[in-house]
Design brief:
- With 587 residues, the chain is mostly helical.
- It has 25 helices and five strands.
- The strands form two sheets. Strands 3-5-4 form a three-stranded mixed sheet, sandwiched between helices. Strands 1-2 form a two-stranded antiparallel ribbon.
- A hairpin with a 2-residue loop joins β1 and β2.
- The two termini are 44 Å apart.
Length: 587
């Protein structure tokens, strides 16, 4: 088993002649597509087929270059060669965006586009991409402004986003006299020793003072730019732009938040029950949110985590089990925290090679095992989507979190089946930690981001305002579940999702994915093995229609609160059981 991922599948290194050749080829490839879009043709179907082929070729080369560069930087923020490659890559991305915009404008002018698509098998296979592109023509930047605006983004929002990542990756925290990476200190939140958790929390908060000012500039600038972009594209708000890009309706989002808001009082009972177990009377301090309870001394070696995941997911779906075996054995995963490496976890897929790369910061907690299951769920989703043409694999953010959260749900449920009461308490706690994060904490992040975006209408928020707004958002969501004297005013600084220039409000997709996955898991419980091919087919089609249509294809209506209430209720059942076990454990 390999501890670090293998990037040589893309290029032997940044001095590889193939890397230089591919990077140099991007402008020519993009120009050729631009010329093909502008070219006159009496055969619209043939013209579009040719453009689709060129886009797929460009996508493969761009994917290899981007993965090599960005994955390197995620583990070595100071790599000079990777940083040097970012400039031409971002320039090419700007040019490619303009090509996609030109294609959208062209498709919007094609007579009887729907009929033309249905008449040609290649076009029909790419139907949603083509129709959606034509629809998006109404939200393109004005053609005369598009080039200059996108170029300015490189030295605006994109530059601030990169700065944020470097600040995060290089911040060292003074923990008990030792200088540790921020990611390693944050991982101590799962430690069994309360004094370790408290000291790590205090050290983490103190460390943000070193980067809070530049972080605030990054956040304000990115959200101010988002407002400008939304206006230029003809959207009423940044949220409306995000929902449209996610192929999701505001009705669906409102239905989900309605069910979550209704459940907040019961969800807070989990925090209060856990607080009492840990000896707190005024709600749970933030430093103990991830404190282990029950049989909490259990940690996992990476070999034990591998064995558990291969057995469990191999039984559920042999194809997934084999993919996980490949991931561990063939260098798909970069496992451990180290200086210069980004915190958190993510998965990045490569379509034409049918593989993924996963970053984690594994330290042995059950949460780390769950994170591995989560990210390998993304990898399996990537594999299923290779059944579709490349241009039909753009899963919207909310659906993109489904397979990952399904894996977490399956892992938790399987481990509870044979657990003792003390082990069940631990496992329920682990499940509720994840589920309250994706509902309660995510709701606070959504509220916070709304405030930051709205504020940009007349001012940039100061560090003080950002901290106060974060505490306000935590009060709205966590309420009396969290100790008001021990919350986390810097959550805006440590969550990278706020700083993406292309994915604003990257918070509600986690709530959607978590609850949708629980609904799918309930189907699996009812139908057993017969559900597995249905599930795999569903994952393959995430980029093929709107969210509402994709979910309706398996009999789920996400536009009303009823489905969401049923999914939330499965979490509330766990809260009630946790309370019962917590009372017994306290006696």
């Amino acid at each position: 088993m390999k501890e670090n991922w293998d990037l040589s599948v893309f290029y032997k290194g940044f001095d590889d002649p193939a890397f230089a050749a591919d990077l140099a080829s991007l402008p020519e490839r993009i120009h050729a597509i631009s010329e093909a879009v502008r070219a006159e043709s009496d055969d619209a179907a043939a013209k579009i087929r040719g453009i689709l082929a060129q886009l797929e070729q460009l996508g493969a080369v761009s994917e290899h270059l981007g993965l090599m560069t960005q994955l390197t930087l995620s583990c070595d923020a100071g790599c000079e060669a990777a940083n040097a490659a970012m400039t031409p890559l971002m320039q090419a991305e700007v040019q490619a965006t303009q090509v996609f915009s030109a294609l959208s404008r062209y498709l919007a002018t094609v007579d009887n586009l729907d009929a033309l698509i249905e008449s040609d098998p290649v076009l029909r296979a790419n139907s949603f991409f083509l129709k959606n592109s034509a629809r998006q023509a109404a939200h393109m930047l004005p053609e005369t402004l598009e080039g200059p605006v996108l170029q300015m983004q490189l030295s605006g929002g994109e530059a601030f986003s990169q700065l944020r990542d470097k600040l995060d990756a290089t911040l060292l925290v003074n923990y008990r006299g030792e200088q540790l990476p921020l990611s390693a200190v944050r991982a101590l939140a799962y430690d069994a020793d309360a004094s370790v958790r408290r000291d790590a929390y205090d050290a983490e908060l103190a460390s943000y003072a070193k980067i809070e000012l530049p972080m605030s500039y990054c956040l304000n600038s990115i959200k101010a730019e988002a407002r400008t972009m939304a206006s230029l594209k003809g959207y009423d708000s940044v949220l409306a732009m995000t929902l449209d890009q996610s192929n999701m309706s505001a009705q669906t989002l409102d239905a989900m938040w309605t069910a979550i808001r209704e459940a907040l009082p019961t969800l807070r009972c989990y925090f209060k029950a856990k607080a009492r177990l840990l000896g707190h009377e005024n709600g749970l301090p933030f430093c103990d949110l991830f404190a282990p309870v029950g049989s909490s001394s259990r940690t996992y070696t990476i070999e034990e985590a591998r064995e558990l995941l291969l057995r469990l997911f191999g039984e559920f779906c042999p194809e997934m089990g084999e993919m996980m075996r490949t991931a561990f054995d063939e260098g798909w995963i970069d496992l451990y925290p180290r200086p210069g490496k980004s915190g958190g976890a993510f998965c990045a897929g490569c379509y034409d090679k049918n593989l993924s790369r996963v970053l984690t910061n594994f330290t042995g907690s059950l949460s780390d095992v769950s994170t591995l299951a989560h990210e390998l769920g993304h990898a399996f989703n990537n594999r299923m989507m290779t059944r579709m043409p490349m241009l039909m694999t753009g899963a919207p953010m909310p659906l993109a979190e489904t397979a990952s959260t399904f894996n977490e749900t399956l892992l938790s449920a399987a481990m509870r089946k044979t657990a003792t009461s003390e082990e069940e308490l631990m496992l329920l706690d682990a499940s509720l930690m994840e589920n309250t994060q994706t509902m309660v904490d995510i709701y606070s992040r959504f509220l916070f981001e709304q405030k930051v975006v709205d504020a940009q209408a007349d001012h940039a928020m100061s560090v003080r305002e950002l901290k106060e707004t974060m505490l306000w958002a935590q009060e709205q969501s966590y309420g009396d579940g969290l100790d008001p004297e021990a919350r986390h005013p810097y959550m805006w600084a440590c969550k990278s999702h706020y700083y993406s220039t292309g994915a604003h409000f990257y918070n509600f997709p986690y709530a959607f994915g978590s609850l949708f996955a629980r609904g799918l898991y309930a189907r699996y419980q009812q139908e057993g093995e017969a559900f597995v091919p249905v599930y795999c087919d569903l994952l393959s089609r995430f980029g093929c229609d709107t969210i509402e249509n994709v979910t309706a294809s398996v009999g789920i209506d996400v536009t009303t609160p009823d489905f969401w209430r049923s999914a939330v209720e499965s979490v509330l059942c766990e809260v009630r059981r946790f309370e019962e076990l917590a009372v017994k454990a306290a006696k």
